[in-house]
């Protein structure tokens, strides 16, 4: 009975997040933001909207529900700001695409987890506190974009390149979410060290094309975000950092999977590649 109640509570949190994300996106409906306004007016409207929404959430929710609500609403707000920039006709259009890509990625991580594996659902499912390195990488991309936009404004107006980056983001996002949905309750954001009774080896669907489609998707998504921004330094930096992270992550994870599934995984590993460049995974002993 306790499990059923917990499952119901987690599903309710997923539904709560949907409403709060939509509430954040509704910043696009605030009168005056879609027109041409001074920077001060825009900041004042956005600040007022955020303050009002936060007071509303504080009145409606407590504890964990408030923590879920405020995160989902903030991500929706970022997505809404991205939409305003994307369709506002300003030189920040491509940064708007980036904001939408970033916010939708993090929110959909939580939402899909709520659907496929509610028992593992937590605030960490938003991946907002992924690592210090992840946050530094994000901030460095904002700094690079801003500096280069001031010094070389033409560099940030290469629409065909930003559009290619947007396609990379969309393909990467679809790959990752397809992997999560195919794996179902076997998917977890944390590498598992102990095999649960429900664990099974998934080799069908997208997993018949790649052993680690969720990592392939994340890899190209992360690089795509920087192609959108036309950030040459961060494109290189993200490519190297992501490649190193996933190489180590896959080796660690595959050692565990070999322990879990033995020869079944070894045969699967020999048949299906990772689809990440120059990443072979854990080495099998002869």
Describe this structure in words.
33% of the residues are buried. The N terminus is likely disordered. Helix content is 68%, strand content 0%. It is built from nine helices and no strands. By secondary structure, it is an all-alpha fold. α6 packs antiparallel against α7. The protein is globular and about 65 Å long.
**Overall radius of gyration:** 21 Å
Report the biggest beta sheet as strand number plus sense, adding barrel if it closes: none
- Measure the end-to-end span: 48 Å
Helical content stands at 55-70%
Number of strands: 0
Described by the principal axes of the CA atoms, the overall outline is globular
Identify low-pLDDT runs: 1-9
Strand composition percent? under 5%
User: How does the helix and strand content classify structurally?
Assistant: mainly alpha
Q: Please, what is the average pLDDT?
A: 92
Number of helices: 9
What's the oligomerization state? Answer: single chain
SSE succession? HHHHHHHHH
